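Researcher: We're teaching a course module on how sequence relates to structure. For the next exercise, students receive a sequence and then see the predicted structure as tokens, so they can try to spot secondary structure elements on their own. Here is the exercise chain.
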Amino acid sequence: MSPQPVTIIMVEDDQGHARLIEKNVRRAGVNNEIRHFVDGTSALAHVMLEEVRANGPLLVLLDLNLPDMSGIDILAKLKADERLRRAPVIVLTTTDDQREIQRCYDLGCNVYITKPVEYETFAQAIRQLGLFLSVMQVPEA
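Model: And here is the predicted structure for the students to work with:
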């Protein structure tokens, strides 16, 4: 059985940032499907769907400042779910507050990147995750 390709879940309310992130992901050579959500409610509703949780693997690109809830709440919910907890989360946000960064790492985010995104840093993070994703297999049921 071949591994499921990883779906990238992007939670970003700013369309300009979303386009830029997608362009950078593509430039880094990652061709996985990207599902874009503009708020936390719809993103969480999507990842909590049984078929999404069952089919894994996901990679989450998460903005912290969303119109309806904090990205930190989303991160906490993802990491509290036993099916989703292994999904790598890259936090992309404008905040470089050390306490907030520490809180994200404590909750289990894999990479914290401050916007505006330095392209090289981002590409590097995506490439590392690409390697990570290529070896990330979904255990067979």
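Model: If you want an answer key for the exercise: The domain at 7-135 is CATH 3.40.50.2300 (Rossmann fold). The chain has one domain: 7-135.
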